[in-house]
Amino acid sequence: MKWTEVTVSTSNEAVEAVSNILMEAGASGVKIDDALDYQNLKPNRYGEIIDLATIPHVTSGALISAYYPETVFVPEILPTIKQRVAKLADYGLNPAPNEVTMADLSDEAWATAWKKYYHPVRVTRYLTIVPSWEDYQPAQSNELVLRLDPGMAFGTGTHPTTKLSLQNLETVINGGEHLIDVGTGSGVLSIAAKAMGVGQVEAYDLDDVAVEAAQTNLDLNPVAADVKVAANDLLTGIHTQADIIVANILAEIIIPLVPQAKANLKQGGYFITSGIIDDKFTMVMTAIKDAGFQITQHTQMGDWHSIVAYLPTDED
What we know:
By secondary structure, the chain is an alpha/beta fold. The chain is 28% helix and 29% strand.
């Protein structure tokens, strides 16, 4: 089969939104080449796993390449893609430069196009994310290995927003909790939660494409075999009482989630949010505080923020 590769040059903050636009336009998968991911591969307190100089990468912004089968007439959808990406500015996301290119690929080229960009990455003190095809052996006895297949449009777990979520999960998980993962994407947060000892996990995303991508990754990790993943609009129609709710999504989407999270969280539970760009931080922080949460932790990586909020008990 022949494939068409459509590549959008955009900003770091618009990566997830642009990826979703490309998938909704009929792509079978995307490759994300984000300069921020490579900055995070530099030596740090967790050590260096790969030599950054040995892999090709962008040095600023991001390139998102989507792959369309020959059944999709790509020239017809390109104007709509550019228009939708440009409209992201109306939602507070900078999509510039929004440059779109197109190229033909063979089936083999499509299947391997993204593999050279994806390597094992230590994302927290204990967690290492490894591509599904690599034979990686843990360097430490307490190291937790999460295996992901990055062949779909929902991230590899190395973006700052995901790393912040993972690091904050480590601070609140004691073992045996009930956790809800809203906007699960690749499923990496659900997998990590199970690896860290969470008992029950429910994972939700907006559409079936995301759910399928998450399920593929859940199947790669036996520890996550019992995670329930389903399509749902945030927590609409969900009525439960969880110990932890985590949401790595756009700031504008966090706002309507706040009251839903409070309704589905036990007193004494934690609400972890990420995906918050600098100029949206105050808006999200205010919404969470106004709902009655106490902020216990605020972490930042570059322009991205994550918040850990605590729902007080009657005794607090």
